[in-house]
């Protein structure tokens, strides 16, 4: 079955990707999918997800800011008659009928507080002022420029692990609920937050790091079709173009951080209250 879509990019079956790379079956196929945001899915895309792939649950890892920005863009598009005529997806609701949606803001409150705490008092005051007067994206760009950019994409991924434990555990728990499967996991690009959650699940399954890294790096090509548009969004966040790329050492650094700080994947997951019985259930559900 083809996994190409009209308006959903960076889509793949994680199990098949890993199994093809390894040359043997380690992960169940047809139960765990990943992609960039599916908000603009065409009618044909929606039928493929629901009726052919039989996806039951969509796990959305985006932040409130991202949701608001996407809603404003969609509302603006609805005011353009030419777009309404050429893009049938705009006539559809964002959420696909028949699918369940779970919003897990993996960069949650504790993560946000950590980033805010890194600001100087002056930048913190500017950020709060901009939020109060309604300039949300300009406020967020201060965090991007002053805190996120110096840490780099890999560094921010490590902060996400350390500061967003409850949200990471919540996302992983969707994989062990039988009624949730098959599941589609996405953020905006389907690259880093999605890549982190998928990487952690695959580590529980004892998938080798090169195979996890291979799956992550496929997003470089998977996002190429919309690269220029994505770079505009990245710049608006106060970030630089390399934030649209896949660092080749992302997965290796995640694994090294888990090993050095937590003693391994079990230690990390214990620290976020995703215990041994849940890990065993994840192996039973997702393992080949």
Please write out the topology.
Blueprint: E1 12-13, H1 14-22, E2 32-35, H2 43-52, E3 57-60, H3 64-78, H4 81-86, E4 100-103, H5 109-117, H6 121-132, H7 136-163, H8 165-173, E5 183-186, H9 193-204, H10 209-222, H11 227-236, H12 250-262, H13 265-271, H14 276-286
Parallel strand pairs: 2-5, 3-4, 3-5
Antiparallel strand pairs: 1-2
Helix pairs in contact: 1-10, 5-7, 6-7, 7-12, 9-10, 10-12, 12-13
Describe the protein's architecture and organization.
Helices cover 57% and strands 6% of the residues. By secondary structure, the chain is α/β, with parallel strands linked by helices. It has a five-stranded mixed sheet. Helix 6 (121-132) packs across helix 7, helix 10 (209-222) crosses helix 12 and helix 12 (250-262) crosses helix 13 (265-271). The chain is globular. The model has no long low-confidence stretch (mean pLDDT 90).
Q: Measured on Cα atoms, how large is the radius of gyration?
A: 19 Å
- State the total count of DSSP E strands: 5
Sequence of secondary-structure elements: EHEHEHHEHHHHEHHHHHH
> Shape from CA axes?
globular
Q: Helicity, in percent?
A: 55-70%
Query: Reading side by side through the largest sheet, how are the strands ordered?
Result: 1-2-5-3-4
Number of helices, counting only DSSP H or I runs of 4 residues or more: 14
Structural class: alpha/beta
Q: Note the beta-strand portion.
A: 5-15%
Distance between the termini: 19 Å
Mean pLDDT: 90
Low-confidence stretches: none
Largest sheet report: 5 strands, mixed
């Amino acid at each position: 079955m083809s996994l190409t879509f009209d308006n959903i990019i960076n889509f793949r079956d994680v199990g098949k990707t890993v199994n093809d790379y390894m040359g043997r079956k380690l992960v169940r196929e047809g139960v765990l999918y990943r992609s960039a945001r599916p908000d603009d899915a065409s009618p044909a895309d929606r039928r493929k997800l629901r009726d052919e792939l039989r996806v039951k649950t969509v796990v959305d890892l985006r932040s409130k800011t991202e949701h608001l920005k996407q809603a404003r863009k969609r509302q603006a598009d609805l005011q353009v008659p030419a777009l309404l005529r050429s893009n049938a997806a705009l006539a559809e609701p964002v959420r696909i009928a028949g699918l369940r949606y779970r919003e897990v803001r993996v960069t949650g409150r504790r993560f946000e507080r950590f980033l805010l705490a890194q600001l100087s008092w002056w930048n913190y005051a500017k950020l709060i002022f901009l939020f109060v007067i309604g300039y949300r994206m300009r406020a967020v760009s201060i965090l991007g420029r002053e805190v996120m950019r110096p840490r780099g994409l890999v560094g921010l991924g490590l902060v996400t692990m350390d500061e967003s434990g409850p949200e990471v555990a919540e996302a992983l728990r969707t994989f062990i609920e039988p009624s949730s499967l098959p599941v589609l996991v996405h953020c905006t690009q389907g690259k880093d937050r999605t890549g982190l959650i998928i990487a952690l699940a695959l580590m529980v399954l004892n998938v080798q790091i090169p195979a996890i890294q291979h799956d992550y790096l496929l997003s470089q090509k998977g996002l190429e079709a919309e690269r220029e548009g994505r770079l505009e969004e990245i710049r608006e966040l106060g970030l630089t173009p390399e934030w649209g790329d896949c660092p080749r050492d992302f997965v290796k650094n995640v694994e090294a951080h888990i090993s050095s700080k937590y003693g391994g994947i079990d230690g990390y997951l214990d620290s976020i209250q995703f215990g041994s019985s849940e890990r065993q259930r994840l192996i039973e559900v997702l393992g080949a």
